[in-house]
Amino acid sequence: MTAKKSTGEFIGYTIGLECWINNRLKMVKCEYTRAGDGVRIHAVSGHSLGRFDGGHSKVISKEEFRNRPDDPYDDIVEAIWALEQIGLSPSGLP
């Protein structure tokens, strides 16, 4: 994990969920930042907010971001969706 500053305008974070990264169980949040005409999703530490190396990042369109799952009673739904966008999944899911 490397502590890197975001270059885009910060939008927010998902809640943290445990994921396997580099064969280690880590608490991971997804950070949203503006990236040109889209939104970048980047994996960050759920503890220090430092970015993880290894390509756990993706730019999606503004429309995809607006249409992300939104359940006011279950933040886990959005967090799982964001993790899946960058190739990760919570450790408790198959």
Written overview of the protein:
- By secondary structure, the chain is α+β, with helices and mostly antiparallel strands.
- 17% of the residues lie in helices and 36% in strands.
- It has helices at residues 62-66, 75-85, and strands at residues 10-13, 17-21, 24-35, 38-45, 57-61.
- Strands 1, 2, 3, 4 and 5 form a 5-stranded antiparallel β-sheet that branches.
- β3 (24-35) and β4 form a beta hairpin.
- The longest helix is centred in the C-terminal third of the chain and has 11 residues, at 75-85.
- The radius of gyration is 12 Å and the shape is globular.
Number of helices: 2
Principal-axis shape: globular
| Uncertain residue segments | none
How big a fraction of the residues is strand? 35-45%
Global structural class: alpha+beta
Number of beta strands: 5
> CA-to-CA gap between the ends?
25 Å
Largest sheet: 5 strands, antiparallel
Rounded mean pLDDT is 90
Radius of gyration over alpha carbons? Answer: 12 Å
- One letter per element, helices H and strands E, the order comes to EEEEEHH
Percent helix range? 10-25%
